[in-house]
Write a structure and sequence with these properties.
- A 3-stranded antiparallel β-sheet has the order 1-3-2.
- It has 64 residues and is α+β, with helices and mostly antiparallel strands.
- The longest helix has 13 residues, at 25-37.
- It is built from 2 helices and 3 strands, in the order E-H-H-E-E.
- It has one domain (2-59).
- The chain starts with a strand and ends in a 5-residue tail after the last strand.
- 3% of the residues are buried.
- The chain is globular, with a radius of gyration of 12 Å.
Amino acid sequence: MEIVLVGLNHRTAPVEVREEGVFTAERARRAAEELRARGILEETLVLSTCNRMRGLRRAAGILP
């Protein structure tokens, strides 16, 4: 099993990039469904706050 953690915050990305990482509950659900349907991820967890985004994902074994 491969676990991938991706994150953005005020130190690592400008506000324009962080704004792209904002997830509503509906957007997170749709993104997770699409990534699972494509066989990219098996499970996802997205934590999105006003200045941070963290995504914890269990990869489907396609990463090197």
